[in-house]
Amino acid sequence: GEHVLEAAAHVRKIVRSRDGEGSVLGTLYCTNLRVAFVPEPPHSSTWFSPAVNSFTKAKVLTASSTLKFIPEELVLYCRDFRVLRFRFCNSGLESRACQVSSYHCRQGHPPRRPSPAGDSQGPSSSPSTLLFERPCDWEKELRRLGAAGWRVSPVNERFDMATSLPKYLWVPSRLLDNELKRAFGHFNARRIPRLCWHHPGGSDLLRAAGFHADSDPEKEDVRSVEALMLAGHAQCVIVETTADLPSPAEIQLSYLKLRALCLPDSSVADEKWLSALEGTRWLEHVRACVRKACEVAALLAERSCSIMLQESDDRDLNCLLASLIQVLSDPHTRTQSGFQSLLQKEWVVAGHPFLHGAGNRTQES
């Protein structure tokens, strides 16, 4: 079980807000499992990895470190990128502060705590999560978005039009299913443009695969393609999803490096951890994806048009970018049920190949 190894009372946790810097008085504990701060009255505890500081000099603590001064401030650099600060000055327990600061480093990385019992319910256990397996789910979400110019089409109900697309699609209301069927052959894997999200200002976010090599712009079928892409707007902006973004294989490799770095048995020294993090290129890839999502989200808010995300097979980066744009633009997707529904719509039923490695699958013809 868990037991307290060292404790320092009357410690002040530094709290920053818009009004400036303040502090919370409490007790800092070092147990055999974690470091925890308990405010007065008792509050919650936090997991973190330590470093130490003084107002006159700073020292990064490792397992072999020896403190030659009494710390006045302890700075904790968390694995989730939070930075927590605790001040021991004027507490009257400077020796305790030194022991708490150094003991956790000698312990190394704390083991992971087991998940609480009964916390094994999956996303589908929430009754408000839409699975998008029935027409009523698509209708409900369409009403929430207020997309009056769109309807739910059962054109792919038997997966005879496109095996990797969902059964039901959001398509322009004035486009009949017979006209819609003409458009499938003009896109890779027959993944036609369809609505992802409707902006309250009137813009529409679409996603689609790349144009098929045999697509003939002179054919009458292209009128159906234009109707899908314009969606009642005067202009359609095509966003090449792969431009300025890392490939799925690069993202996967970066994630594997990040995961290895964050494991408790990582061999990277604490003082080199941030450099190793930068070397994974994970933050670089995240920054590129978020930047592009912000650009598209701003375009949706500024102009009344249709914006189509286009990727060669529409099953990797389109899933990512469409999700990020909605998380940035739609507060509902930042709730638990909304985020679960978003993943279901843009990843699961949209045909993302979860069981295949990135960039290592046969493209559907």
UniProtKB/TrEMBL annotation:
Residues 108-130 are annotated as: Disordered. GO terms for biological process: phosphatidylinositol dephosphorylation. InterPro entries: Myotubularin, Myotubularin-like_Pase_dom, Prot-tyrosine_phosphatase-like. It comes from the Eukaryota. GO terms for cellular component: cytoplasm; membrane. Residues 132-365 form the Myotubularin phosphatase domain. Signal peptide: none annotated. Pfam families: Myotub-related. Belongs to the protein-tyrosine phosphatase family. Non-receptor class myotubularin subfamily. This is Myotubularin related protein 11.
